[in-house]
């Protein structure tokens, strides 16, 4: 499903109003949904609504009015003067007939639930002074919080904490989720996100054309590769994984098994001769082939049946790996570059980007983690607080000409054309040695089945996260390939494919 920036949400609002609805009607729907969620969440006892000076506060005041009508005791605190409210928020304030408590930490007390309607998508600077004190006091109170639209203090476009932010039990948001609900740290502040309909027609999206999506099957289901009844293994592609030296061959084997489990018809490990015996002894369904140099790899890949290559896990850092990367890009299969394949171009990323842009096959995926990413995009590290992870990855994709996948709990995949997907299905136990190697292999396996690069990266990330959920806590990288069949079955169920 599409993800919106606050600016895109404002356009959705304006297009709806231009179509004949009123802004206040949207606010009434929003406030009522918030009240409904509060009824479900609150234990018996009073409910405190903390309202801010804009329309987020307006939603809170409608919710407060509705909750009283539903028989609850409600207290309201307002930041600023009632008379200073404007537009729809001023109309909402006229609906609230009760008193307003002073905007002080002492007013919080110990309610059954706090409705956080302080700031939503209109947050435009770091919170300070009174608002900051209230946010911190709410977080310290231990009272469950229901956030309206966004936990106050979270930037809806970036997920950043602007000074301080509410930690909510649940967040009710309207029409479509915002990017800040998925990107960290925002996601961690939202609790469960409840998406409600407030009367905005999905048709407005035809005009807004959002380019960010949640990475879930809705986004790529038609591209999911399913073996054909009349097919054979050669029809499912032949992936190659490049192995490192004798002492570091395990990473390539993990990737190779990932490629096979992702559905590649055949997988071959291109192994240095001195590591051939160790690779051959540890592999069964995966084949091995001696390859020491970039020239040898190029010669092997001249056989176009090898249609996808994964390089990087355990490859070794330096000129030898650089050469193999350039040989793979020149040969024309789809390519996924990870780990050492990326680090080998640290300080000279232009050579890599040039090779990517001049390849005859534009299906190239880069899969850095946050440590590797600035080695290629030095001005785009996560130390730069002005750019969100989404923006950083989009810039990287545009600059490199490749699909870029930046790993983490909120893995972002972006294509050079601006499309981007944010994942939120990976459990924390996925952060374990070798799990990234398996991801490289899964993507290579999908590319071998001719899934386009953006979709291959998205499907790979999603399946990897699901495989980790399936394996559960205690997961080691080897488990991921073994739980992938259950993940395939789940996608088959969604596609209605019998098995
Ligand atoms: N769009 C839609 O379709 C719908 C939107 N709806 C709702 O409207 C919400 C957006 O409303 P919004 O635009 O009025 O912004 P909002 O979040 O209330 O904040 C703006 C106010 O806060 C202030 N302010 C900002 N930062 C501050 C700071 N750090 N510290 C202190 N003050 C700060 C800012 O002040 P100013 O910049 O003017 O000084 C202004 O007064 C959205 O989240 C959703 O809940 C729904 O009703 C349904 C339909
Ligand atoms: N906190 C987290 N929650 C969920 N997934 C995570 C988290 N941290 C890392 N991951 C995932 O774990 C994998 C680690 O990959 P990587 O850093 O390449 O490790 P390795 O090099 O050991 O294989 C990536 O898919 C990444 O997205
Ligand atoms: K809020």
UniProtKB/TrEMBL annotation:
One of its GO terms (biological process) is nicotinamide nucleotide metabolic process. Keywords: ATP-binding, Isomerase, Kinase, Lyase, Metal-binding, Multifunctional enzyme, NAD, NADP, Nucleotide-binding, Potassium, Transferase. GO terms for molecular function: ADP-dependent NAD(P)H-hydrate dehydratase activity; ATP binding; kinase activity; metal ion binding; NAD(P)HX epimerase activity. Its EC number is 4.2.1.136, 5.1.99.6. Bifunctional enzyme that catalyzes the epimerization of the S- and R-forms of NAD(P)HX and the dehydration of the S-form of NAD(P)HX at the expense of ADP, which is converted to AMP. This allows the repair of both epimers of NAD(P)HX, a damaged form of NAD(P)H that is a result of enzymatic or heat-dependent hydration. PANTHER family: ATP-DEPENDENT (S)-NAD(P)H-HYDRATE DEHYDRATASE (PTHR12592:SF0), ATP-DEPENDENT (S)-NAD(P)H-HYDRATE DEHYDRATASE FAMILY MEMBER (PTHR12592). Belongs to the NnrE/AIBP family. In the C-terminal section; belongs to the NnrD/CARKD family. This is Bifunctional NAD(P)H-hydrate repair enzyme.
């Amino acid at each position: 499903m599409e993800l919106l920036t606050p600016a895109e949400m404002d356009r959705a609002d304006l297009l709806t109003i231009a179509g004949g609805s009123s802004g206040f009607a949207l606010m009434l729907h929003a406030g009522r949904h918030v009240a409904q969620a509060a009824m479900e969440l609150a234990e018996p006892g009073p409910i405190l609504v903390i309202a801010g000076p804009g329309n987020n506060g307006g939603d809170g005041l409608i919710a407060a009015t509705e909750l009283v009508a539903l028989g609850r005791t409600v207290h309201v605190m307002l930041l600023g003067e009632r008379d200073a409210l404007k537009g729809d928020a001023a109309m909402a304030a006229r609906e609230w007939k009760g008193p307003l408590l002073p905007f002080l930490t002492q007013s919080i007390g110990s309610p059954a639930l706090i409705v956080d309607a302080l700031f939503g998508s209109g947050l435009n600077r770091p919170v300070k002074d009174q608002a900051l004190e209230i946010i911190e006091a709410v977080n310290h109170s231990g009272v469950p919080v229901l956030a309206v639209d966004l936990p106050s203090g979270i930037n809806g476009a970036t997920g950043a904490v602007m000074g301080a932010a509410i930690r909510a039990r649940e967040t009710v948001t309207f029409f479509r989720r915002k990017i800040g609900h998925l990107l960290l740290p925002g996601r961690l502040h939202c609790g469960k996100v409840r998406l409600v309909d407030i009367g905005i027609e999905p048709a407005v999206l035809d005009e807004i054309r959002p380019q960010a999506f949640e990475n879930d099957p809705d986004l790529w289901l038609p591209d999911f590769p399913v073996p054909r009844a009349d097919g054979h293994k050669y029809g499912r592609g032949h992936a190659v994984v490049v192995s490192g030296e004798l002492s570091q061959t395990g990473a390539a084997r993990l990737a190779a098994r990932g490629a096979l489990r992702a559905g590649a018809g055949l997988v071959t490990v291109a192994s240095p001769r001195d590591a051939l015996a160790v690779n051959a002894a540890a592999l069964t369904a995966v084949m091995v082939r001696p390859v020491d140099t970039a020239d040898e790899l190029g010669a092997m890949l001249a056989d176009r049946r090898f249609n996808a290559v994964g390089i990087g896990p355990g490859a070794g850092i330096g000129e030898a790996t650089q050469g193999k990367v350039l040989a793979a890009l020149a040969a024309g299969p789809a390519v996924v570059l990870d780990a050492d394949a990326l680090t080998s171009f640290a300080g000279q990323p232009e050579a890599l980007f040039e090779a990517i842009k001049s390849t005859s096959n534009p299906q190239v995926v880069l899969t850095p983690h946050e440590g590797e990413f600035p080695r290629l995009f030095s001005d785009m590290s996560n130390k730069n607080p002005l750019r969100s992870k989404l923006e950083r990855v989009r810039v990287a994709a545009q600059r490199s000409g490749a699909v870029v996948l930046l790993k983490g709990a909120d893995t972002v995949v972006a294509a050079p054309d601006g499309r981007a997907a944010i994942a939120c299905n990976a459990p924390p136990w996925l952060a374990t040695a070798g799990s990234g190697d398996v991801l490289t292999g899964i993507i290579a396996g999908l590319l071998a089945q001719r899934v386009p690069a953006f979709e291959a990266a998205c499907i790979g990330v999603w399946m990897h996260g699901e495989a980790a959920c399936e394996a559960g806590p205690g997961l080691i990288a080897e488990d991921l390939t073994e739980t992938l069949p259950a993940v395939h079955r789940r996608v088959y169920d969604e596609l209605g494919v019998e098995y």
